[in-house]
Amino acid sequence: MRPLFDPLTMGYDWEMAVLKEAMESAGDDEIIRLSDRIRNALPWSRVGVDLDLLEARLGTVKRWEELVEKNTEYMEVARRLAAKKKYIVLPIGARPTEEMPIGSHIHVGTCTEFARAMALKNRMFRFVPVFVAIAANSPVYRFRSGEYKSYRIFTNAEWCSRPQQAFHPRFSRGSWGEDTTVKAWWNNTIELRCCDSASDVNLMCELTVLAAGVMHALSNNLYVEAIECDGEDFYWSAINRWKAAKYGLQAKLTWDGQEKPVSEIARSMIDIAEEGMSILGAKKSDLILIRKMLKKRQTQADFLIALQKSDPNPDRLLRAIANVYEKDHDAFKKYLDMAPTLPALKPLSMEEFLLSKITKEVPAFQLAIHTPLVPYDFDRLIEKLEDEGKIRVEKDEIWGRTMTRL
C-alpha cells in the first residue's frame, strides 16, 4: 500500500498577539498591514491574520534545517517590522485579561486520502494529551489563574480545539475544530490543533517535527472498514487530556491500564517518532528543549507562573511577560536551565472534580461543559454518584436534569 504521506511534509499556523505599548491589541487593520509587510520582505511566507492575531504560515516544509531557518527568519522580520510601529509580537497561549486563547496549529502532509487520514485521526487521540502537556502555555486566562497550566485546552480553545470524536473512516465527512482535524481535501494535511502558542521559536520547530514524526509512525496499515477505537482507551484519553491541561508535564496519565508520568510517556512517543523525523532530516537529539522540559517536568506555563508570583495583577502581568520575551527571545531556555525539577503529581479523580463543581441545582449542560467526557460516559458517572448518595438528580421542564450535592 502506498504511503499516506507522499511526501512527508510539515508546516504550521502559529498564532501570536501584536500589542501596542499599552498592551492592547494593535487591531485587525494594523495586523493586516504588518502581515503585508512581512510577505513583501519574505516572498515565501504565507503569513496572514486570524481574528486579531498575526498567524505565521511557512507553507510546505520538507526538511528540518529549512524549518529552523525559515522560522527564525520569520520571527526576526516580524519583530523588526512591528518595532517600527512600536508594536510587540508576542506568541503566548492566552492573554491574562481579554480575548480568545492563542494556539499553534501544526500541519502534517502531503495527504490526499480522506478515509485513511480519518483512520489515522482515530489513532491520534491517545497522543493528544502528551502534546497538550508539552505545549502548555496558558496558565492565565480572562482574569483566571491557578487551576490549569492550559486554560486554552480546558476551555476547548473556546470551541476551536475540541476533544476528538471517533469516526468511521469510510462514512465520515470530517469535523472542523477538533484536536486532530483532517484537511486532506483542501489543505492536503492533517492538523494538530491542541498545542498552545509557543513563545519560543526553537520549541515551535521541535513540536512541529515531533508531530510529523508521530503521525508518520501511526500511518502504517490503516484500516477504513471499521472504527479502530478501543472504548477504554477512548475514555481514558479524554480524562488524560484534562489532566494534561491541569498539570502540564507534572501530570500522571492512565496509559495501557497503568498510571504513568506523562514525561515518561513522551519519551516513548519520541522513540516512535524517530523514523519520521529522520525522513525530515531531524534527530531525537534535535529536540533540545523538549527533552530538557521532560527531564525537569517544566513547561512554558511554569515559567509564566513564576513570573506571576512577582506580580499577580493580570494587567501588569501581561506587560511583564511581554517585556521579558521582548528583551530576551531565549528567556524560556534560560529559565529552563536554572529551573528545578518538579514532581509528578497525583491527579484529582474525575469523580472528585465533578463533585467540586456541583452545588445546588446545577443544570446538567453547565456541568457537562466542565468535563472532557462524552455524554455516554458523563451520564454513567452521574448515575454512579447518584447511586452512591453523593448527589441528587432532579428533572426540570426547562433546564432538564439538575444536580445537587448532598
TrEMBL record:
GO terms for biological process: modified amino acid biosynthetic process. GO terms for molecular function: glutamate-cysteine ligase activity. Pfam families: GCS2 (PF04107). InterPro entries: GCL_type2/YbdK_subfam (IPR050141), GCS2 (IPR006336), Gln_synth/guanido_kin_cat_dom (IPR014746). This is Glutamate--cysteine ligase. It comes from candidate division TA06 bacterium.
